[in-house]
Amino acid sequence: MSADNAMPAERSLRSPKSGSPSAPIVALAGFWKRLWDLFKLIIASRTAMVGLGIVVFWVLVAIFAPAVTHYGPMDQDYKNINKPPSAEHIFGTDNLGRDVWSRAAYGARTILFLAPLSVMVAFVLGIALGLPAGYYLGASDEVIMRILDSLMAFPTILLYMIIISALGPSMINVVVAIAIGGAPGIARLVRALTMDIRTREYVSAAKLRGDSDFHIMVREILPNCRGPLIVDFLMRIGYAAFYIGTLGFLGLGLPPPTPDWGGMVQEGHSHMTVTVWPVLIATVAIVSLVIGLNLFADGLREESMRYQ
Fold first, then answer.
1. Nearest-angstrom CA–CA distance, 222 and 226
2. What are the domain boundaries of the chain?
3. Is the peptide bond before 257 cis (omega within 30 degrees of 0)?
4. 71-291 is a CATH 1.10.3720.10 domain
5. CB-based burial of residue 307 (10 Å sphere; 0-12 exposed, 13-18 middle, 19+ buried)?
6. Could you list the mean pLDDT of each consecutive 10-residue stretch along the chain, which spans 308 residues?
7. Cross-strand pairs, 93
8. pTM for the complete prediction?
9. Is the dihedral of CA 17, 18, 24, 27 positive or negative?
């Protein structure tokens, strides 16, 4: 074969075929396929569908709070204090004459913003600690795990109380407290998954290619942890919502008059001999949201295990 005939063949080996899909299109197609697979898992599970329905209800209430309420969350009607449900106030009023349903609807905005945000921060911290610990093992793993074990030795609510008492009650400090309290458990989960995945053949192949440790951890190991991490993320949002309500009840949550479900319970429990509606509505809201998130996560986990 002549050199002139060999050159086109060599170029064809080095360059991609014309008309082949570009990398962004392939990545987008893969994203939509994973999204479709997740959708099929959700609709295949009745448990997940029930939980999703509850969560979607509160998300819609939070988004359209101005449309589904007739009053602002801090509007006061001094002529109607501690009133039962009526045509004017569908779930009555609290001890300051504020509409209970309005505060519950706007409180959904607060909790549906803070709970996912705090869990996201906790996941960033947990992944940053657990991924290298499980990949490198050795002395670094021992040091990281012992520090996290010392944090996990504290009861969760006690740790939150210590942090917020030291920093002061505010929206940012609530996020910081829940993130610090949740990061150790997430780190241990990521570490366990990493220790299993690091022995797989595609990780060994990446090492033989000369890929950096950071590239292997972020591009080879972490994406293959996403199944258990997604389920854990959803369940932790429910836990975060519960703890935000608990901190609000203890007076360590958001400062008044911010609409907050836990704060509604804290303010209304001393007036329960007059009216129970502020406490009842806020409690039902917290419980229903936590149950909805847990049902959604449990349904996804059970269906994914059956599918596998």
1. 7
2. 71-291
3. yes
4. yes
5. exposed
6. 43 42 63 68 82 95 94 89 90 92 94 95 95 89 88 89 90 93 94 92 90 90 89 92 92 86 90 90 95 90 68
7. 99
8. 0.83
9. negative
